[in-house]
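A reminder before we start the practical. When you read a complex entry, don't treat the lines as separate problems. The point of joint prediction is that each chain is placed relative to the others, so the output describes one connected object in space. Small molecules and nucleic acid strands, if listed, are placed in the same frame. In the example below there are two entries. Take a minute to note the order of the lines before looking further.
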Amino acid sequence: MIECKDIVKIYTNGGVETAVLKGVSFSIKKGEFVAIMGPSGSGKSTLMHILGALDTPTSGEYKLDNHDVSSLSDNELADIRRNKIGFVFQSFNLLSRATVLRNVTLPLVYAEVGADKRRPLVEKALRSAGLDEDRWSHKSNQLSGGQMQRVAIARALVNNPSIILADEPTGNLDTATGEIVLGTFQQLNRDHQHTIILITHEPYVAQHADRIIHIQDGKILSDKKNDQKRIVHSHPEL
Amino acid sequence: MKTIDIIQETYFALTVNKVRSGLTILGIVIGIGSVIAMVSIGQGAQGTIEASIQSIGSNLLIVTPGAQRGAGVQVSAGRGSAQTLTKEDADAISNQPIGITATAPEVSRRYQVTARGTNTNTQVIGTIASYPTVRNIAVEEGSFITDQNVRSLSKVAVLGPTARDDLFGQDGSAIGQSIRINKVDFKVVGVTKAKGGTGFGSQDDVIFVPLSTAQRFLAGDTYVTTISIQAQSADQMTQVQQQVTDLLLDRHHIDNPQLADFQVLNQADIVATASSVTGTFTILLGAIAGISLVVGGIGIMNMMLTTVTERTREIGLRKAIGAKRRDISLQFLAEAVMLTLLGGVFGVLLGWLLALGVSSFAGLATTVSTTAMLLAFAVSAAIGIIFGYYPARRAAGLNPIEALRYE
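Here is the predicted structure of the whole assembly.
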């Protein structure tokens, strides 16, 4: 489903070329839960941008659902992001003065989904993300960190994307809440077969995935099945 | 992105910071309001002046004597000083076949007038029965001078309302009373209706007497000072003007039109001149007010640029979830246009109220035209687009990765 072949990304700044990714190849199948782990500066963020169709590689091939995404225009990349990718960010990036419902509806607005079809999709996404119904009409700045991240997950789910990209989703949360959010991802992966890619620098967070790709200095250090997967069993309320 | 969604997003974005949006709108409100008010005052003045010119008569041509010149030497005593026009000239003009409704010669001069212990200095006009038709004068009580009065050199007078007030007190009874002009007694037979004292001097402070009487007993000669001619329609005025000029040149045995001892003034020319003056005045007022509109537009641009910077992360997020450049730029452009359109609505209201205020407190006539209002809306929308374009383009051009990282 995702195929990366010899992905190279070089940034040119003031005539100085810096290679951030130096030939990265891997593939991810539908329904996998993969963690991409590496210290800061390893190139994992750049890889995430390329996987998320926010950026294109300098050379190499990136195929998403058999579409070559490596050399698309800005507008075509926007189409890919709209239809195939759901983002979850470290800092949630919610519209702070908008209600939960409005935040989750936003991707449907850009996808030009008819107004009457939006509400059921939004409700389904919020239920999958595990946010209580009595919070739906709250403004997002009235929620706790964990609740905000669940709204962000619902927003990522609402368009039924091919992959969910979570960039340090627990970075702004305490350990207990982070655990619950990671549990939500595991549940989405287990119960709804969503493909999830988790980007993190913490080995502990990466332990929650089925497979860990370890990146360092722009290269893959290791890519193996996670034998010590930490499973969050309960789906406690936040 | 659907239109209804853009409107919703815009409404949401503008209500998030109501005070800032309100202040930005205020700039446009003041701009549009002052343009509307100023143009209304200009157009009102134009209307007043035109009405004032029309009140001296409709489709009017006025023949006045030319300059008095010594033989061979170019010493001029000034236009209107010559005594070249006579009642016979007026009669000849009346007998012209085409386009003339009525002709009224007059001889006018200021005299000291007395009546039973009061006195005033006023304009005395000797004229004939057709004068009220030509000069739009109506008789309030009694009657105007008749042809019979002119033929028999009757010593009768018709008073203008102001002259009546001066001689016989406010709304005093004047009919049948006797007044003395230049040591000659006249009997008052009528009073004319007030025409209003606005415009070029009062047309109500005047006394009318028969032309023949004025020539014989007051002026002592046979000349007239003005011949007023009413054309049948506005289209024929130029033709009638030419015809009258040719006729008088012929009667006065003048070959070279440059040396004519009279001049024919066309009312349409006077109206056109006055209109062009007030038109320029209106443009000047509008332009001054327009400066505040531009300042308001810059206010919009300033606010939009601040908004774009503040909402960089939001723009990044919108791009990440699939917004295209066009979606982003449309959204910000819609915000700017919404601000200016709201400003336009309140601005038209404010301008209209200002115009009303000026009418009722300063006594100036104002005209708020539909054209001015529609133009104001169009201009405010255009300002929104012009001043919103750059911030919108800047927002749309943001790189989503950098925008998401923006602190």
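Discuss with your neighbour: The mean pLDDT of chain B is 86. What might explain this?
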